[in-house]
Design goal:
This protein folds into two domains: 242 residues, Putative sugar-binding, N-terminal domain (Rossmann fold, 3-Layer(aba) Sandwich); 202 residues, Molybdenum Cofactor Biosythetic Enzyme, Chain A (3-Layer(aba) Sandwich), CATH 3.40.980.20. The protein is 38% helix and 20% strand. It has 16 helices and 18 strands. The strands form two sheets. The protein has a 15-stranded mixed β-sheet with strand order 9-10-5-11-4-1-3-2-16-17-18-15-12-14-13, with helices on both faces. Strands 6-7-8 form a three-stranded antiparallel β-sheet, with no helix packed on it. Helix 3 packs parallel to helix 4, helix 7 crosses helix 8 and helix 13 crosses helix 14. The longest helix has 21 residues. The radius of gyration is 23 Å and the shape is globular. The structure holds adenosine-5'-diphosphate (ADP). Adenosine-5'-diphosphate binds next to helix 12, helix 13 and helix 14. The site of adenosine-5'-diphosphate has 21 residues, from helix 12, helix 13 and helix 14.
């Protein structure tokens, strides 16, 4: 049996957000990192026993033509896997420019699917995103009056989504307003039929509560394509008979050593690192200035970790308070410092896995991207949530990531006998961006794996 729902997300953390919502509504979900190749047997294997697959793209702010190309490739792959419905996921603040990419990607997907109608709603009431009379509210204020007004890449100054999307599409954009949604799925379907008759191609849909999203989910069950933030995910799985169940989040058993790699410099992560240090667990601090001076900091970190892994989770971190970070950035340049640290922590993560770490917590959005790439991960099975929006995931490691000595630099790679708990190609990993997670996140994460 193929997958039910095929999702295309325009950025990585948005993809995880969607995947997490689908799991909580009862689907088994795999998130793929980037467009899988036709011949990518690993991606196919990872997706095979999932109910939904989310392809995570980086297409939010690239040129529209590139976003369209990546989205169409993803669509072709998802359809080949049997996807019965396609979900295009964008940000709950509808991040886009007059050139796109929400409009152009939506229309390209409609063309490819041969459908003349779809819906669009970024509403996610649990996160304070509601749509009323076609206007998007962020918390208590209109989108155009929120902080999004000043976003560096996608400033949003118009709150009326019918006009925002209309400026990006050739097809006429209409509205299914709250009077229809409040009357239930049948009323929404009637409104869809009416709009279709008038030649409307895409309808913004009002939703101010989770009930509205459930109504909408039921109403759109026969549409080949839906487009939304991650909120609509709570209303779709029921169309295939899925119900919330812990089984959807079940991962293979966890093994190996535990470690935390933290390159986030946000306030929440600073608190989490402090809390972990207070427990007295072994920790190694990566000093960016020593990395810049050419010292083998990754090798030192791995030697330190290697000596302590058998006793429990080890932390390797570059996390510092804002003053210290500014100081380093002043000396090295912000971009250079960031890249140096990311590269070092990615090497550490790879070395840790070579030494038998199979439970890995990564803190930092950019840091996560660098680690995922260094480990050659292509897919993540989404598991139980540690804190809101941050699930444990299971990934299949490629052969080369587990082979000791793949990295031949001094201090890298495990020596014989040093990695006696390695082996096994399943890595449990959680990717926590910036300000997510409570103060005890690192310890909580390992506890959850032991008890689930
Ligand atoms: P967050 O999700 O908290 O924003 P990211 O990993 O996305 O975390 O971004 C943090 C950035 O700061 C990364 O580029 C990282 O390499 C860099 N960084 C981490 N530690 C330091 C440090 N001590 N000094 C300077 N830059 C750092």
């Amino acid at each position: 049996m193929g997958i039910r729902l095929g999702c295309i997300a325009d950025d990585f953390t948005g993809a995880t957000d969607l995947a997490n919502n689908l799991v909580r509504a009862g689907m088994r979900v795999v998130q793929l990192i980037g467009v899988p190749d036709d011949g990518d047997e690993r991606a196919r294997r990872e997706a095979r026993d999932a109910d939904a697959v989310v392809v995570a793209l980086k297409s939010r702010t690239v040129p529209a033509a590139d976003a369209v190309e990546a989205s169409l490739k993803s669509l072709a792959w998802l359809r080949a896997m049997g996807a019965e419905q396609i979900y295009f996921k964008y940000c709950s603040t509808f991040d886009s420019t007059p050139a796109g990419n929400i409009g152009p990607v939506t229309e390209a997907l409609m063309d490819a699917l041969g459908t003349d109608f779809t819906v669009a709603t970024p509403a996610f009431p649990d996160n304070g995103r509601t749509v009323f009379k076609g206007h998007l509210f962020v918390g208590d204020v209109l989108l155009g009056e929120s902080g999004m007004r000043h976003h560096p890449l996608t400033p949003m100054t118009d709150s009326n989504l019918v006009s925002v999307l209309g400026a990006q599409t050739k097809r006429p954009v209409g509205l299914i307003d709250h009077t229809a949604v409040a009357r239930g799925a049948e009323a929404v379907r009637d409104r869809v039929a009416g709009l279709r008759e008038q030649g409307t191609g895409i309808a913004i849909v009002d939703a101010v509560s989770n009930d509205d999203l459930v109504t909408l989910g039921e109403a759109v069950r026969d549409l080949p394509l839906v487009t939304a933030g991650s909120g609509l995910a709570i209303g779709l799985p029921a169309n295939w008979g899925f119900e919330p169940s812990p089984a959807a989040a079940r991962l293979p058993p966890a093994g190996g050593y535990g470690a935390v790699v933290s390159g986030s410099v946000s306030a929440a992560t600073n608190g989490q690192v402090r809390e972990f240090l207070d427990t007295g667990r072994p920790a190694y601090r990566v000093d960016p200035l020593r990395v810049a001076a050419g010292e083998d900091v990754a090798g030192e970190a791995l030697a330190f970790a290697g000596a302590h892994l058998a006793d429990g989770p080890v932390l390797v971190y570059s996390t510092e308070d804002p003053d210290a970070v500014r100081d380093v950035q002043g000396r090295l340049g912000a971009a250079e410092a960031g890249e140096l640290v990311e590269r070092t922590l990615a090497r550490v993560a790879r070395g840790l896995v070579e030494r038998g770490v199979r439970r890995l917590v990564v803190a930092g959005g950019e840091t996560s991207g660098a680690v995922v790439q260094a480990l050659g991960l292509t897919g993540l099975r989404i598991g139980p949530q540690i804190d809101p929006g941050v699930p444990w995931c299971a990934a299949v490691l490629p052969d080369e990531a587990t082979r000791p000595g793949a990295d031949t630099r001094p201090g890298a790679g495990a020596r014989p006998g040093e990695d006696d708990r390695s082996g096994g190609d399943t890595l449990h990993i959680t990717l926590k961006s910036g300000n997510f997670g409570g103060p005890g996140f690192f310890s909580d994460a390992f506890t959850l794996l032991e008890t689930s």
